[in-house]
Amino acid sequence: MIKLIDKYVIRVVLHLFCKVKQKNISQDGIKNILILRLGSVGDTVLLLPTLSSMADKYPNSTFNIISWNTNHQVYELLKQKNIKLHNFKSYRKLMSLFNLFVYSLQNRNKYDVIIDFEQYAYITSFFMCLMAPKNSVAFRVNGYVKHQFSTLSAAYSLNIHETVNFYNLAVSVFSKIDLHMPVRKSSLKRCIGIHPSSKWKQKVWNKDKFIELIKKISETNSTYTFKVFLGPDDNVDSWDNIDVSGIEIVKNKTITEIVPILKDLELLISNDNGIMHLAAYLGIKVVGIFGMSDPIQWHAINNRENVVETRMDCAPCNKLGTMKRCHNYECIKRITVEDVFSKVERCLLNVSLND
Prior knowledge:
This protein is of the alpha/beta class. It folds into 2 domains: 2-171, Glycogen Phosphorylase B (Rossmann fold, 3-Layer(aba) Sandwich); 191-348, 3-Layer(aba) Sandwich (Rossmann fold), CATH 3.40.50.2000. It is 35% helix and 18% strand. Helix 5 links the parallel strand 4 and strand 5 (135-140). It is globular. The two termini are 40 Å apart.
C-alpha cells in the first residue's frame, strides 16, 4: 500500500507543489546536515562507511540522521560525536511517517543541506521539500524523477556496489572525503554463524541444505561450533534434532544484541540479508548465498570473492524495489551444498579467490 501511495500520490504532489531550481552547492558554510535513509538494515549498513567518512572529514559540522525501528540500532554503530540520531521508533510504519511529517514542519529552513540516500522512493523527497533546506541532494535514477526535486543530483548505477553509489552521492557535496571501508579481521575462534532467514522467500536457500552443510563442515573438522540465527517467524524445533554437537540457536535478538555475537564468529554463512552485511561491516568473513539479487551491487563488503550464485538469464530479478514475477526461484534452488561448502572450506583455509 505504501509503495502505491509513494508511486501514484506522492509523486503527483511533488510535481504540483515542489519547485526546486538546480544549482551547484558550495561547501563553505555547510554546518547542519540532515541524512535521509529510511530503508532496511542491509542498505543502512552499506551507508555507514560513507557517513563515517563524512563525519570524520568535517568534525565541525553536525550530521543529523533520521532513523526508525528497522535501522536505528545500525546507526548507533557510528561513534562520532558530530553524528546526531533522530529516532522515530514507532512499530506502526504509518505512525512513523506521521511523526516524520510533524518533524519536517517543525524543522523548516533549519538545514544547510539534506542528502537523500533513498534510491527510488519519493516519500523522502516529499519530506525534504517540506523542510525547505538551503540545498538538497538526491539520486538521478533511470525511470525516476527524484532529482527534479533537489538542487543537486548524482547518477545512480545498478552496475557498481551500493557503497560506491552512496559515496558518489556524498562527494557531490563533500568533494574532499575519502571512503574508509572496514577492514576484514582474522579470527580463529572456531565458531561459524549460520543465517538461513530472509524476509524475501526468493532469497532463502533451503533449510535442509543448510543442515546438510553444517553436518559436512562438522565431519570435516569437528572442532567447529555453530550459532544459528533465526528470526521471529522461524521454527526452532526444526533445528533441535540435528545430529551435530555444538549448535546454539540465536533467536529474536536485536541488532545491538547480535553485534557482539557476530564479533565472536570466524565465519558467517548467510542468505542475502541485513545480518550478512552487518557481519561484513564488523570485519567478519562472510559466505553470501545469492538468488534474485545482483551480487555485483549487493555483495557483503570485502567479500565479493565469497559469493555463491547460479548465473541465469533471468537474474537478477529485483531492481529498485521491484521484482519480476517468478514461480520457481530456480536461481536459489540450483545452488548445491557442495557449491557453498567449497567457498566455506577455502575461507576457513584463508585462501582468497579471485573474481
